[in-house]
């Protein structure tokens, strides 16, 4: 997909805290995510909806980077969430606990009606789907190709553990256990199949900056293009990790130039080895991520 704005870092803020939402909106995060779901208790949801709507209305520009996480579409709160926040013209909606393509399509119906009611360009409100939080959703991660409005897919380990009745989602080394690593892989493969951005889940310990950096570097090498954040201190690390370095850019440009100088060649000698077309595709991806395609 073609990004209209960067989508490396996605920073959450609870929708019932004006202070935290303002800090989130004014941070360097590419996407500021105002949360109406897990971060807000049931009794606080009406107040949170009003607070999110008011904050959106207060911004004269930059709303394309202000997104809202609503409640699941199969629950009792999602329609009220959308009716409250859509007059504020958010840039996008995060859909939690998506069970598959049908949930994105249902959300699209709601958004289409609300865009029409609020004078918003049809289809302009984008969607990121959390695709592994329900047990059944693990079987539908490959079904999202062509889903309306879908810009990105991400995954979650904590809600999945709850859905599975697990007491822990970590192995003895502290890494995610196999089932949750599988969820990460299925999200990545599903996003590639759908042609949307794969976004890594949160790093829960916001004080563990070294661990965050190592994980962000790891998943970017695997193909992820951004990461969720729960604290402003994580944003700079995430932005750096998902931005190609000058060394990477120079190496990629060298490969692209080499193939450009030898059109029609499937494989070409390079520094004592051979490069074929997949190396060219990877180099082009680096330049695209750097905005130099």
TrEMBL record:
<comment type="similarity">
    <text>Belongs to the HpcH/HpaI aldolase family.</text>
</comment>
<protein>
    <submittedName>
        <fullName>CoA ester lyase</fullName>
    </submittedName>
</protein>
<dbReference type="InterPro" id="IPR005000">
    <property type="entry name" value="Aldolase/citrate-lyase_domain"/>
</dbReference>
<dbReference type="Pfam" id="PF03328">
    <property type="entry name" value="HpcH_HpaI"/>
</dbReference>
<dbReference type="GO" id="GO:0016829">
    <property type="term" value="F:lyase activity"/>
</dbReference>
<dbReference type="InterPro" id="IPR011206">
    <property type="entry name" value="Citrate_lyase_beta/mcl1/mcl2"/>
</dbReference>
<keyword id="KW-0479">Metal-binding</keyword>
<feature type="binding site">
    <location>
        <position position="133"/>
    </location>
    <ligand>
        <name>Mg(2+)</name>
    </ligand>
</feature>
<keyword id="KW-0460">Magnesium</keyword>
<feature type="domain" description="HpcH/HpaI aldolase/citrate lyase">
    <location>
        <begin position="8"/>
        <end position="232"/>
    </location>
</feature>
<keyword id="KW-0456">Lyase</keyword>
<feature type="binding site">
    <location>
        <position position="133"/>
    </location>
    <ligand>
        <name>substrate</name>
    </ligand>
</feature>
<dbReference type="InterPro" id="IPR040442">
    <property type="entry name" value="Pyrv_kinase-like_dom_sf"/>
</dbReference>
<dbReference type="GO" id="GO:0006107">
    <property type="term" value="P:oxaloacetate metabolic process"/>
</dbReference>
<feature type="binding site">
    <location>
        <position position="69"/>
    </location>
    <ligand>
        <name>substrate</name>
    </ligand>
</feature>
<dbReference type="GO" id="GO:0000287">
    <property type="term" value="F:magnesium ion binding"/>
</dbReference>
<dbReference type="InterPro" id="IPR015813">
    <property type="entry name" value="Pyrv/PenolPyrv_kinase-like_dom"/>
</dbReference>
<feature type="binding site">
    <location>
        <position position="159"/>
    </location>
    <ligand>
        <name>Mg(2+)</name>
    </ligand>
</feature>
<keyword id="KW-0614">Plasmid</keyword>
């Amino acid at each position: 997909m073609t990004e209209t704005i960067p989508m490396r870092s996605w920073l959450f803020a609870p929708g019932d805290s004006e202070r935290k939402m303002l800090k989130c909106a004014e941070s360097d995060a590419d996407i500021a995510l105002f949360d109406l779901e897990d971060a807000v208790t049931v009794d606080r949801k009406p107040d949170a909806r009003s607070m999110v709507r008011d904050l959106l209305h207060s911004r004269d520009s930059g709303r394309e980077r202000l997104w809202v996480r609503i409640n699941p579409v199969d629950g009792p709160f999602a329609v009220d969430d959308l009716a409250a926040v859509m007059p504020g013209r958010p840039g996008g909606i995060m859909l939690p606990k998506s069970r598959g393509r049908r949930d994105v399509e249902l959300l699209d119906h709601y958004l289409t009606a609300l865009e029409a009611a609020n004078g918003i360009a049809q289809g302009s409100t984008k969607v990121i789907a959390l695709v592994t939080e329900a047990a059944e959703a693990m079987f539908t991660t490959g079904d999202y190709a062509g889903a309306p409005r879908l810009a990105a897919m991400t995954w979650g380990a904590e809600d999945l553990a709850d859905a599975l009745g697990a007491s822990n989602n970590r192995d003895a080394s502290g890494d995610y256990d196999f089932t949750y690593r599988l969820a990460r892989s299925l999200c990545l493969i599903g996003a590639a199949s759908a042609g949307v951005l794969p976004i890594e889940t949160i790093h829960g310990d916001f004080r563990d900056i070294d661990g965050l950096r190592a994980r962000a570097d790891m998943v970017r090498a695997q193909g992820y293009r951004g990461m969720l954040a729960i604290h402003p201190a994580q944003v700079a690390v995430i932005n750096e990790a998902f931005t190609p370095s000058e060394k990477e850019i120079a190496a990629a440009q060298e490969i692209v130039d080499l193939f450009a100088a030898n059109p029609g060649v499937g494989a070409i000698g390079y520094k004592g080895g051979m490069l074929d077309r997949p190396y060219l595709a990877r180099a082009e991806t680096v330049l695209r991520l750097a905005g130099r395609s």
